[in-house]
Write the structure tokens for this entry.
Amino acid sequence: MGIYILKRIVSLLPVLFVVSVVIFGIVHLTPGDPASYMLGEEASPEQVNELREELGLNDPIPVQYLNWLGGVVQGDFGDSYFMNQSVLDAIFSHIGPTLSLAIVAEIIALSISIPIGIVAAIKRGTATDQSVMVVSLMGMAIPSFLLALFLALIFGVQLGWLPVAGYQPLSNGLWNHLQYLILPAISLGAIQAALIARMTRASMLEVLNTDYIKMARSKGMKERTVIYSHALKNAFLPILTVIGATFGALVTGAVVTETIFNIPGIGQLIINSIERRDYTIIQGIVLFVTLIYVTINLIIDLLYGFIDPRVRLDSK
Amino acid sequence: MSTTSLSNIRKELKKEQRSLLLKRFLSNKLLLTGSVIMLFVVGIALIGPFFLSYTPYQMVVENRLSPPSAEHLLGTDNFGRDLFSRVVYGAQISLGVGLAVAVITSVIGLVIGLLASYYKTLDHILMRICDGLMAIPGILFAIALMAALGPQTQNVIIALSIVFTPHIARVVRSKALSIREETYVEAMRAQGASPLRIIFLHIAPNTISPLVVQATFIFADSIITEAALSFLGAGVPTPDPSWGNILYDGKLVIFNAWWMTVFPGIMIILAVIGLNFVGDGLRDMIDPHTKPRSKKKRPNLFRFNFQKARG
Amino acid sequence: MTTELLNVEQLRTHFYTEKGTVTAVDDVSFTIHEGEIVGLVGESGCGKSVTSQSIMRLYDEYMVEYEGKIEFNGDNLLNYPIKKMQKIRGDAISMIFQDPLSSLNPVFTIGKQIAEPLMLHHKKSKKEAYERAVELLALTGIPSPEKRVHEYPHQLSGGMRQRAMIAVTLACEPKLLIADEPTTALDVTIQAQILNLMRDLNKKLQMGIIFITHDLGVVAELCDRVMVMYLGQIVEEADVKTLFEQPLHPYTRGLIKSIPQMTGERKSELSVIKGNVPSLTNKPKGCRFSTRCEFADEKCIEEMPPLKTHSDTKKVRCWHYEEIIAREEGGHVHASST
């Protein structure tokens, strides 16, 4: 198992190298000089040059890259051009709402999709099953930011049930916190729910066809026991994988959804940074989220080895 | 005598093949539905302009935010521009960007995928680069590229092409790798055919069908991503209309003008669903093996394949 | 004879599929008595498993339709509501499946899987059920059962898994045990152990056993009576001795001839039945075996023969079996030397 983990991590290194080059490259594609942006139009060429020297912008590109990479490896993503703080501080001060949103969305997605997927699998081929399949396909095709706009329009504007914009931290009370998150979380969770429902259905169908389910029935088990105990426990392994994968997608999706609902998370930070041309922040966020993404995928890969009872027991 | 009958037979065969193809097309409900939807959407983009009485840029300030009426079929926007006109021209831009991205990624992805499948060392390098590019979440990558390139329509196309090319390259490569192993390719190599000839004349044609399917999905994903970018103000710049930046304006006035959100939204959904149906349908047609085997009492109207992970 | 346990009459099992209705079991009738071991033999796809699973009604009710009667202790099981059927399953009738690895749930311990039916049907407490599980494992000959009871299926060897599955099915001391190819997936030495075990259990517990297999050798060793199935129908029924001594149906004769013989001179090649089993969707109109039978004539192709009673213990579904026997007796030397 240890060797397996090590292998997986080593195989990630070239990927991470490419990611770092690309992300570093994006900033250096930028036409214009960050030093002159930072100092404004009145700055003298001497001042600009001084700042360029200070920021290391006069070094050759490979040296700049290595300096930057060295910092990143040590957890230093650089400093914001405009805000008086480091990139990581900026990210951490905005990550809370984003994570909150992603988690609420995941909870909503799970509580809808898994029961629906199970029912569709049990009633396979029926009208119920087909409508689940069609609705989930629609769910997968509707972009989450559009769904967000429509939900805001219906429940926020027309019905006035929930606030359309804003955010309250959890410390202001659970309901205050949640009511701002419900609409964005639903719109964000819908695609994931569709995916998970389809996976649950597929996985349950596969398990329901196995001999041990037939065996369980031949023992006289009630249908409910067969499905929720014998089948679900086996079907859950692949479902869990999808859940992990969708959580990664939720964090990215949150970026767009946040701007619709004015939630002060990473998404808003990156949009504001585009307007301010604060490239180090953009670079930092893309790198940070990519790392989260890669890490989650790595964890899922490893979990897959652990979760399966056969593997789990063998490793004892 | 014999040549005429032979050509007649050939004609007959072609006719038969065509009618068979038509039958397969008509029996493929996904493909049929998707094509009808796309025909509608593309029709709006191409024929729509002939029925317009306003240009998408014409502002009538006293007519700001008027709801749908006989005068303005879909109402007007916050500058008093005719929304119908903006949605129609927006369709041209949004579909145009999507199509351009699909075509560009197909061409570049095809070349990369084919070369990677044939040359081992190149394969390692190209695929690691693809892995790296695919590891960066698509929308964020696009945002970062747009921030660097600046908000212009052609930059949207460039950014999305960079984001989506690896997906095509992957599909082409895996198909090409399996073709490479076929006996007839081995035989040609043994006969001393040049690698480029083998790649482009014999392997390439076989990769076209999975490529077209993948390109259809990328078409759809590009429309979504372009809309998201424009919606965030990092895509197609105003005053040019795209479905995404109409939504951006609509969001500012969401309390007063529902029509500015609903109509471009519906267009996006139609285009995306239409393209996804076409893609799924094409895949079913090309590769019937992926159809799930099922023992069902009722015939299945919609047999969707789960495996199609998005993007 | 002893009392009737199970009486199947004119059972037909139809499946709804995309290509239309398929009849996998077609007019099957037989009786099982208490304490009797009856073999059900045939090539794969002949409907043996469907027959057995129809008795348990294990198919999804919406994709299958049963016709005829399955009387168990005098009640027609096909009339039972599903709840009542569930009470019978695993209690009075239970079933052993072919592959013990895929038939035991990989995420539950052996103990839980044995205890489950006990807790369900006999309302035993968890502790009692687990104690009984240990006894049952011991009964099936698994060493150190008190340890095995807490293990998962994959931790047992193939033979032990099959013993564990037998323990599961014996938990509630069923009156009728349906064993669907229980030895097919096992090594030969373990096969013999399992067969011995089943014979012992049959004597100890006086239960009726339907033993499904495609292996006539196993039948000869274990069963009292045999039914031979072909393409959804029973083509011959006889007690074991007479079946092997004088097979009546051409299909049975083919099956018996295809068994390798250990005694006597080694033949140059084994005889095989010509051709393949036709598919269920494309069944011959007359006798089901007519497409492969060397004796088939017009009548066989056109008309389906009935299951005729030849003697007390023998039934056969063939138009020409008497002629065939007559010819056989005439040229006896010839038949046994080819």
